[in-house]
Design a protein that fits this description.
This protein is an alpha/beta fold and about 575 residues long. The protein contains 16 helices and 20 strands. The protein has an eight-stranded parallel β-sheet. It has a five-stranded antiparallel β-sheet with strand order 14-15-16-20-18. A hairpin with a 4-residue loop joins β7 and β8. It is globular and about 75 Å long. Bound molecules: 1-O-alpha-D-glucopyranosyl-D-fructose.
Length: about 575
């Protein structure tokens, strides 16, 4: 159990929601493969994370979200789990995990596990048993015969026309029984059948086991997929595509909220000390508001995707990249703020292990603007209302990887896209450019601890190349430099802990259509914070007539301390506090 933590005394105003502790918290995501390697095998591990906890203490974070460390064949870097109640030897042992939990709790940090229960690995004993049609576990997964009139294994014989995220058709034939199983992700990630109450009870029992072991909550992988239209209808086939989309049949299904409420009840997720965040790529604002309404006892908050899908051609794959103008981004986040203003709660993130590095994607990672743009992006995000998530290395302003060849990529998704797109005749330059911007390995290069060999991540050969810019961008340098991105994040996190308006103040977006400025007001007329940020690599001028009166304002945080006035430098931002 985490040490008792005081319930923050929040100024509620009209807000009658309970003062949950996570409203003033900042979460830090650790991707274990890439954080710190203690044994020189080139892969990060649990003792490595424990040895680096003081970095997180210095930053001031409240919660550590640990991406999966369970036993896994590692087809999808641990998001394919073969034993939910053990640690993969690559990362250490259960005792190492207990030590990490204890190390976190001793420092007042809570630890949240990744919960991947839409699917298991095909090597999980449940699935291995399920391959036998006579097994009592047959119904734990989605087994179906070939499409009527088709021989199993022939083209078009799959039970539905669905495409999987990582492996072509979403159905894999098991030659022994002649039936297919469903996998929305890779063929090594068979989908669990949540319609079966035994499946649900087994998941809840596993979750209780972790809570009893001391974990403080769960980040729930693609939890919006667990309820489906049980008739499994074919999906629409986009022009020129080979497959149909499962989306309408599997996302936000009819029993989703029933399952979430049942899980909450059975595991005791609303006990008060736990944090739950559901990854819900397909969630609407309305659904997110219902799911995160404390009165409904489903989830505390959800990860939504609208803002990270803005640079994708509507309906297209993530690689079909289009520009996302600043006003669209601002208005998108503001709609979520407004939608969850009175009921529910937002989570706030720029990046994670699936998304490009924030400073490359939303900022400017050139030597000239990297530091200021990383700081300003942090300021803008953390000054929205919600719980911010910092992805490892974001606090250093780490950038996308400079991989020149496909041989350097390791991610199942990137490797598959490369092969498929080239086969389809897409020019190699287009493919490599899309990977350089959107490939998931951009976020997975090793954490840059120092300027030494392999950035201090490992004494061995890193599993994924270290970014050569670690000689300049690294934690040791950042901690020593008062004007670093790290120290800016530290100040931002401290501000949330000290100033109740950051967590709780009413949110308002000003100048929604301004192409450069991001202006946010938090609070009310008597006491408010005003964020003025130039989110561009050109100077920008704010018109005082467009802003609240800043005459008696105090600057709480600035990217360019000492620089004053409303002629803002590229990527300059300030947080003002105004009382009247
Ligand atoms: O990601 C789910 C998800 O939405 C993916 O489709 C994601 O967009 C993917 O990265 C495609 O670009 C979660 C995990 O975060 C991811 O790492 C896993 O690979 C996936 O689920 C399957 O467990």
């Amino acid at each position: 159990m985490a040490p008792p933590m005081t319930t923050p005394d929040l100024p509620h105003g009209t807000d009658t929601r309970p003062a949950h502790w996570w409203r003033t918290a900042v979460v830090y995501q650790v991707y274990p493969r890439s954080f710190a390697d203690s044994d020189g095998d080139g892969v990060g591990d649990l003792p490595g994370i424990t040895s680096r906890l003081d970095h997180l203490v210095r930053l001031g974070i409240d919660v550590l979200w640990l991406s999966p460390v369970y036993r896994s064949p590692m087809d999808d870097n641990g998001y394919d789990i073969s034993d939910y109640q053990d640690v993969d030897p690559l990362f250490g042992t259960l005792a190492d995990l207990d030590a990490l939990i204890a190390g976190c709790h001793a420092r007042g940090i809570r630890l949240v596990m990744d919960l991947v229960v839409n699917h298991t690995s095909d090597e999980h004993p449940w699935f291995v048993e399920s391959r036998d049609p006579a097994s009592p576990r047959r119904d734990w997964y989605w087994w179906r015969p070939a499409r009527p009139g088709h021989e199993p294994g022939t083209e078009g014989a799959e039970p539905t026309n669905w495409e999987s995220v990582f492996s072509g058709p979403a159905w894999e034939l098991d030659p022994t029984s002649g039936e297919y199983y469903l996998h929305l992700f890779s063929r090594k990630q068979p989908d669990l059948n949540w319609e079966n109450p035994q499946v649900r009870q087994a998941v809840y029992a596993m979750m209780r086991w972790w809570v009893d072991r001391g974990v403080d909550g769960f980040r729930m992988d693609v939890i919006d997929l667990i309820s489906r239209d049980p008739t499994l209808p074919d999906g629409p086939v986009p022009p020129g595509a080979l497959f149909g989309s499962p989306h309408a049949a599997v996302a936000n299904g009819p029993r989703l909220e029933e399952f979430l409420a049942e899980m909450n009840r059975e595991v005791g997720l609303s006990a008060g000390h736990l944090l739950t965040v559901g990854e819900m790529p397909a969630s609407s604002i309305d659904l997110a508001r219902r799911v995160t309404d404390p009165a409904r006892r489903e989830l505390d908050m959800v990860f939504t995707f609208e803002h990270v899908d803005l640079d994708v051609r509507p309906g297209g794959p993530k690689w079909d990249i289009v520009p996302a103008p600043l006003p669209v981004l601002k208005r998108t986040l503001a709609r979520w703020q407004d939608g969850l203003a009175d009921v529910g709660w937002n989570s706030l993130y720029w990046n994670n292990h699936d998304q490009p590095r924030a400073v490359t994607r939303f900022g400017d990672d050139s030597p000239e603007h990297r530091v200021a743009s990383a700081k300003t992006l942090g300021t803008v995000l953390h000054l929205h209302r919600g719980t911010p998530y910092v992805y490892q290395g974001e606090e250093l302003g780490m950038t996308n990887a400079p991989f020149a060849s496909i041989a350097e990529y390791r991610d199942i998704e990137s490797i598959r896209y490369h092969a498929q797109a080239l086969a389809a005749g897409v020019p190699v330059e287009t493919v490599m450019a899309a990977l350089a911007l959107k490939g998931r390995d951009n976020a997975r290069t090793p954490m840059q601890w120092d300027a030494g060999p392999h950035a201090g991540f490992t004494t061995g050969e890193p599993w994924l190349p270290v970014n050569p810019n670690h000689t300049e961008i690294n934690a040791a340098a950042a901690q020593a430099d008062p004007s670093s991105v790290f120290n800016h994040y530290r100040a931002l996190i401290a501000l949330r802990h000290e100033n109740a308006l950051v967590a709780d103040g009413r949110f308002e977006l000003l100048l929604p259509d301004h192409p450069q400025l991001w202006v946010i007001v938090r609070g009310d007329a008597s006491h408010r914070l005003v964020v003025v940020a130039n989110c561009s690599s050109e100077p920008a001028t704010a018109d005082p007539a467009d802003l609240p009166d800043l005459a008696d304002a105090t600057v709480l945080l600035a990217t360019h301390p000492g620089h004053e006035g409303l002629d803002l430098l590229p990527w300059e931002s300030r947080v003002y506090e105004v009382r009247s």
